[in-house]
Amino acid sequence: MAEQNVNSRLVAFCDGVFAFAITLLIVDIKIPSSVNITSTADLWLALRHLAPSMFAFLLSFVVILITWVNHHASLRLVNRSSVSFIYANGFLLLTVVFLPFPTALLGEYLPTDHAAPAVILYDATLALQAVGWILVSKAARHSRLFEDEKAASTLRESGKFGYFAFMVYSLCAIMAFWFPLTIAIITTLIWMFWLMWGISIKHE
Questions:
Q1: Which of 15, 25, 80, 194 lies most in the core, judged by the most C-beta atoms within 10 Å?
Q2: Domain extents for the chain?
Q3: CA distance 169 to 122
């Protein structure tokens, strides 16, 4: 029996990777076994020390959630597939599944004087994710995988946004050498904006 949707396996695979990556975010958030908890006050103090990790977790949860929503919408625009499109999706998924690593670094080192490498790596990962979006858009358009010209226009806009996002996050990664905490705040505000904007959109 022929598949009704030629991209059904790709969609299922991508959804599985997104689910795995978003689950990995919470794995490292726990009170270290070396911490001696002898009272309620000790437990509250230990939980307070987890605040930076919880911040990094929530930020990356939003990043992956928005990325999944946009990816889901993008795959609905195409009704065919190609080798280049599959590999472009693979590169995008690579940046998604890698994100838990800089997230853990961000949670551990953001409140310290050594936060710069963690913030640099985090924003560099987001810049590479933008490259993934550019590749996905290009592969879909060059192979004409879209359903109609409206879908083609949407994919074209997605590619343009990818270039913009690459420049923004690359600049953030560079500036994080000197202003890691400020850049972490700016990165958070950017994604909060996209979350609010995405929620406000009324989909048909």
A1: 25
A2: 8-28+56-200
A3: 9
Cα–Cα distance list, 64 to 118, 167, 186 (Å): 18, 20, 18
User: How far apart are alpha carbons 26 and 105 in whole angstroms?
Assistant: 13
Quote the radius of gyration of the chain (alpha carbons, Å). 19
pLDDT digits (tens, 9 = 90+) for 26-60: 988 888 877 888 889 989 998 999 999 999 999 99
Interval 90-126: pLDDT, tens:
999 999 999 999 999 999 999 999 999 999 999 999 9
Measured CA to CA, the distance from residue 157 to residue 36 in angstroms comes to 53
Q: Which of 175, 166, 35 is nearest to 116 (CA)?
A: 175
Pair 122, 102: CB distance under 8 Å? yes
Burial status of residue 50 (CB atoms within 10 A of its CB: 0-12, 13-18, 19 or more) = middle
Enter the tokens of residue 8: 């059904």
